[in-house]
Structures are given as C-alpha cells and as structure tokens.
Amino acid sequence: MFNTSDFGDELQALQSEVSRLMNTTGEGIFDAAKNRSEALADQIKAALGELGETLSEQEDHVEKLIAERPITSMASAFALGVVIGFMLRRH
C-alpha cells in the first residue's frame, strides 16, 4: 500500500534536484548581475569622459570671459558673496 522507502527515495531525489536548480539559478543570476553591472560601469565611464570634455571646453570659455571683463567679474563675485553672506546670516 504505502512504501516508506519509495517515499524517502522520492524525497531524496527531489531534494537533490532542488539543490541543483538553486545552484544553477544562483550562478546564472550572479553572472547576469555581473554582466549588467559591467555594462553600467562602461556607460558611467563614457558619461564621465564626455562630462570631462564638456567641462574642459566650458572652463576655457569662462576663463576667456573673465579675462575680457575682469572688473565686471570681480563685482559679480563680490555681489554674490554679499548675497550668500546675508542668506547664511538669516539661517
């Protein structure tokens, strides 16, 4: 009618199958996450490279503007300092 050894063998086979699936799935998930993180890191490196180039170009532009109008630049910096000072004093 009910054979406990057959039931035990079935449970053992099921346990080994589940552990095999868990190991395979874990490795697959790890590999997929690793590949995705490497792709994301490459995208970030490319974006940082482009940002560096843009900032370099803008730095040259700002430097040129300041060199052409030194008094205006100093007055603007002073006014900005005064405004920030008042804002910090209030809080």
SSE ordering: HH
CA(first)-CA(last) distance: 84 Å
Q: Summarize model confidence as the mean pLDDT.
A: 85
Strand segment tally:
0
Largest sheet: none
Class of secondary structure makeup: mainly alpha
What fraction of residues sit in β-strands? under 5%
Radius of gyration: 33 Å
Low-confidence stretches: none
Q: What portion of residues is helical?
A: over 70%
Q: How many domains make up the coordinates?
A: 1
How many helix segments?
A: 2
Coarse shape: elongated
Q: What can you see in these coordinates?
A:
The chain is elongated and about 100 Å long. By secondary structure, the chain is mainly α. The protein has one domain (4-90). 95% of the residues lie in helices and 0% in strands. The mean pLDDT is 85. The chain has 2 helices and no strands.
Keywords:
single chain, about 90 residues, mainly alpha, 2 helices, about 95% helix, elongated
Summarize the structure in short.
By secondary structure, this protein is mainly alpha-helical. The chain has helices spanning 4-68, 70-90.
Ordered list of secondary-structure elements with their pairings:
Elements: H1 4-68, H2 70-90
